[in-house]
Design brief:
Blueprint lengths: L3 E4 L11 H6 L1 H14 L3 H7 L2 H4 L2 H21 L6 E4 L3 H8 L5 H18 L15 H17 L5 E5 L1 H8 L5 H9 L3 E5 L10 H20 L1
Parallel strand pairs: 1-2, 3-4
Length: 226
């Protein structure tokens, strides 16, 4: 039988995670110690004790989940349980890279700390939200979908609405910009672009996104080229 490990992404965090691993297994405790040293602050204490509001901050969540995932992996590995395949969802891809020995754990935990910081700067705490459906009764799900269909009918079901910053909206509406045509072709329906000042941190700002992407690429390049 082949074994595959799939590592979780952001949203799986909870105060107290990893504590029993570190208390029981020296190899897990060493992973937490390495994370603390690499980041220069006690990430382990944040994982073990919280508080939740700090753990939920993206710049903390991402290195915390990576650390717990790798600690659990090393415990299983020490017990002779080795996967033939590793994969991950979003942030979990970095855990998978560490498990595959593609990058060192210390490098990965520093990298996802930066990744989380850039993402948090793009969407400050308290701005925006995401929800996941977990163990939701089928009836409740049908009710939610029915409400969504009502919204779709409100725009006659013929049009998709795309919110963007004024800068991006202007660029999308430009006659020289072919992206909008491509999106409409893929969706098979017209797309209405609505300009909206999303926030003061540059959400949707081309310049802001490019700057953060460049910074993250530089951090990633350091791992490859030293």
């Amino acid at each position: 039988m082949k074994i595959a490990f799939v590592f979780p992404g952001q949203g799986s965090q909870a105060a107290g995670m990893g504590r029993s691993l570190a208390e029981t297994w020296p190899v897990a405790r060493r992973i937490f110690e390495q994370a603390d040293a690499a980041l220069g602050f006690p990430l382990s204490r944040l994982c073990f004790e919280g508080p939740d509001e700090e753990l939920r901050l993206t710049e903390n969540t991402q290195p915390a989940l990576l650390t717990v995932s790798v600690a659990a992996f090393e415990v299983l590995r020490e017990q002779g349980i080795e996967p033939e395949i590793v994969a991950g969802h979003s942030l979990g891809e970095y855990s998978a890279l560490v498990a595959a020995r593609a990058i060192a754990f210390e490098d990965a935990v520093r990298l996802v700390r930066q990744r989380g910081r850039f993402m948090q700067e793009a969407v400050p705490a308290g701005v925006g939200a995401m929800a996941a459906l977990l163990r939701l009764p089928e009836g409740k799900l049908s009710e939610i979908l029915a409400q969504a269909q009502k919204y779709a009918k409100a725009v006659d079901g013929k049009e998709c609405v795309l919110r963007a910053s004024p800068e991006v909206a202007k660029e999308m509406k430009s006659t020289e910009n072919k992206y909008l045509e491509e999106i409409e072709e893929i969706l098979g329906r017209p797309v209405l672009v609505v300009a909206d000042q999303l926030d003061n941190a540059g959400i949707g700002s081309t310049g802001g996104r490019k700057k953060r992407l460049t910074e993250f690429r530089l951090e990633s390049a350091k791992l490859v080229f030293g």
